Amino acid sequence: MPYVDRQNRICGFLDIEENENSGKFLRRYFILDTREDSFVWYMDNPQNLPSGSSRVGAIKLTYISKVSDATKLRPKAEFCFVMNAGMRKYFLQANDQQDLVEWVNVLNKAIKITVPKQSDSQPNSDNLSRHGECGKKQVSYRTDIVGGVPIITPTQKEKGKIQNISVLSV
């Protein structure tokens, strides 16, 4: 069962398949620390380990792209979920269905990228999209390569006039 510790980190025991595709799961103590951007695991709760004991493994949260239920991928491993991190899949096993759902939710929440909403103090998006730095007008364009030469074609017309087509030579 994941819980929040005194340092506001999500902690708890899970079983992890440390060697990919080995089918052998080992019990480890996990700490999800969003302030440190890390998901680390130890042999046991670090409070129970001798001082100076190092972690067994770690993953930066920015490397984790997706966390999902893996009971269909690993039917023999009950309450199993998978973490996609870079080129590797980490298979983890929770104690029960409730733990599985909670760990998947907290991990997905931790890796989610949030974009702040626009406030009233910021200029509106219409002005931002039309004018770049120094007040210059920005225009969207399409680039085609014809005979090894890039051809840039504006995709919109300015009010009342057609923009020039510019060709860049290499």
From TrEMBL:
Gene3D superfamilies: Pleckstrin-homology domain (PH domain)/Phosphotyrosine-binding domain (PTB). Residues 7-112 form the PH domain. SMART domains: PH. InterPro entries: PH-like_dom_sf, PH_domain, PI-Interact_SigTrans_Reg. SUPFAM superfamilies: PH domain-like. It holds the Pfam family PH. It comes from the Eukaryota. PANTHER family: PLECKSTRIN HOMOLOGY DOMAIN-CONTAINING FAMILY A MEMBER 1, TANDEM PH DOMAIN CONTAINING PROTEIN. This is Pleckstrin homology domain containing A1. The lineage of its organism: Eukaryota, Metazoa, Chordata, Craniata, Vertebrata.
